[in-house]
Structures are given as structure tokens and as C-alpha cells.
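During the reporting period the student researcher (J.K.) took over the structure-prediction task from the postdoctoral fellow and processed the backlog of single-chain submissions. One of the processed entries is reproduced below for the supervisory committee.
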Amino acid sequence: MAVDFMQEAPDIIKRFLLYMQNIKGRSPKTVDEYYIDLRTFFRYLHMSRGLCDKSLEFDEIKIDNVDVDLVKSVTLRDAYEFMYFLQRDRGNSQAARARKTSSLRQFYKFLERDHIIETNPVKELETPKQKKALPKYLTLEQSIELLNAVEGDFAARDYCILTLFLNCGLRLSEMCGLNYSDIRSDNTMRVLGKGNKERVIYLNKACLDAINAYKEVRPTDDLKDRKALFISRNHNRMSPKTVQAMVYKYLEKIGLDSQGYSCHKLRHTAATLMYQTGQVDIRVLQDILGHENLGTTEIYTHLSSQQLKNAAESNPLGKLKPKD
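J.K. obtained the following C-alpha cells:
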């Protein structure tokens, strides 16, 4: 859902959002998510305190009257009751509630830092525990099958995109944001990641061959975005939606469409293959993937441990009991 916080948000929230975007370098999408989370919280506060017409639907509640006094009146109990409301009435998952917890804490941390409030009421607000699900990924054989499935008028382009996903572990937004000039003569690629942070990825032979093959057929006439590396059938930069549709098409072709696979799963695949098969050091993998925290990358070490556990449990003697 598209939002325009510059038009909708009250001044006190707008100040926070502009700070996160312009000073902290958060992406527009992340800033929109901050606004949606805070809007949900203050709608809840209006509803629970009777500050709005009871006949209004939740999504119709306006928050344009949120000011310093209302912000200061919030208590830790309000925050926990909000979390309960999200789970009971809104059906939010643990991950969704964790994100709203983070947004609320970030907002009040900003207010405290900017001396708008003296005490932070949500400083002790705890994040809902989340299940640490292991990321889903393609096996080496499935990855090869996916690449071999590519065909059609845009085969060189599609093959190149899939090759970069599976070898470089790019995010979808990073793939779509690639410019022609990001492919450098020293066989490296410049990637603009989260928070506008740049990183350089070294391209292996498979990537270089795929890129060179695509460059030979890449459209050059009537381009609406001449900087873009990957061009759509309409001669524009490929959008995330278009790339997703392309990936789903080939996943469906090899029978993986209904098994929870996606562009992000291809990123997991690249990371898993590098760590488990290529024996890549975890800190090197962190740099390749553009993770800010090493803890995010360490999920791939857990994958290896899980495989060891599964191997032990698959032993046919693993459930044998001693004879009475």
C-alpha cells in the first residue's frame, strides 16, 4: 500500500521520518513502514482511549491531531496492550509485531535524543520472540535445473539475472537497481544495498559469461532508462514485480512454484552454497551479502548444524531401544 507521509503524518511523526530518511539513510520503503507502524499504534491509542468516533472503522481513524502531549502520555502498559491487540484483533505474526515494536522504540528514542520528551516510556519494551526458521534454499541440482529451464525471447537476460542471484546473493531491490556502468572492467560489480551502502562483488566466470552474452542482445534504442542494466520488454528498467514474475515462471517450470520459493530464496541459495560447498569464511560471506550484523549471516552456520542433526537422526539405528 502506497503512503505519503509528507501529506498525512502529523508534524511530530514527520520530523522522525525525515530524520530516519535524510540523516540515518533509511530507504523510502523502510521509512514508509515506520509510518505505517506508528499510524497503527496511534489509531489504536485513539480507539482505546475513546478519542475518535466509535462508529469509525479502524483504518478510517485519523491521527493528524497527534501532538507532544499525546506522545508524552503513552505508557509502557499502552505499548504492551497494543501488542496484545495486534495479536488478538489484527492477527499479526510475531515478525509483524517485532517490527512494530522496533518502530515504536526507534520513534521514542528519537524523541528522547531530540529532547522532545524527558523519559522514554517504551525503553523497556521487549521484542516478541520469533521462531528462528532456517531459510529455504535450492539444492545445487535444483539450481542447475533452474538455469537450464531458461528459454524464450529474453533468455540471455533471464539467464543473466538468475546467474547473478545464484552466484552473488543479491537482494531483489539490488538486482533491479543495477546500472550498466556498475559492471566494471576489473571483473567486479558495484552494488547499492540497504541504507544506500555500496559494496563491490567479484564476478566469477559464470557471471561474466552471462553478462557478456546479455550485453550482446541488450536493447539500445528508445530506452526510457539508459542507465539500467536489465531492460524490460517495454524498454524500461525492469521492476521488482517483473523480475519476480520471471523468477516464478522458471520456478514453476521445474516444479517449485508452490513450495515457498522466491527471489529471496535464490539469495539464500547463493549464501548456502558458498558457505557449505565453497567453505567461504562467515565474515567474507557477510561482506558479499551486505549484512550489517554478523548475526544475520550466522543463520547459514545453523543450516550446516541442522544438516548434521538430520544426518544423525536419519541413521536407522537412531531409534533402537535396549532389549528389556
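The committee noted the following: The radius of gyration is 24 Å.
J.K. will present the remaining backlog at the next meeting.
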